[in-house]
Amino acid sequence: DIQMTQSPSILSASVGDRVTITCRASKSVSTWLAWYQQKPGQAPKLLVYQASILESGVSSRFSGSGSRTEFTLTISSLQSDDFATYYCQHYNSSPYSFGQGTKLEIK
Amino acid sequence: QVQLVQSGAEVKKPGASVTISCRTSGYTFTNFYMHWVRQAPGQGLEWMGIINPSGGSASIAQQFQGRVAMTRDAATSTFYMELTSLKSDDTAIFYCARDKSDNYPQAHYFFDAWGQGTLVTVSS
Q: Which A residues in the span 9-38 are in contact with B, Cβ-Cβ below 8 Å?
């Protein structure tokens, strides 16, 4: 099974900051990698898939990059609505596992 | 618009079974696979399996095999997930999540629409 590890687990930032979350896979997943945002009490929301393709309707402040085992999600110019937990998920092979999450907090 | 509406919260005793429904609307039911995802309280997300909307065949993650059944009713555009032999550590929110692929029968195994979640509490 492929293990997904996100860093950091908690990230404190301010409105207007640029932040980057990293996701590492235990073996190559090519670019079969998605990112989700989850707010308290809500279901996750798809942000990015195939490592760098922005889901329709998602703000262009979000961007994804990477391949094989290392991936990043970058949020440029944080807005108050962006404070949430972010998860990466590979879909290279079953089981399609998620990272443990990165909680983005207001500094 | 695409909507996935799940059944309400459940409280079950250890050893019991639970069935959660996911009623879909706003898209062609038979064109999109459906997945189920578990989230323990304050924890991360765990993929449970996928069901084919046409024919109803399912592929279950190994750790849930033998305890999970996924079915669907095309007449009502509804998916079901049954989890048996419940344990206290099955206490979680369960989500149905639609596969992103609109190129049936290909599945992508990531998720572009989610139900609101169903909390299952297992307690004696």
A: 32, 34, 36
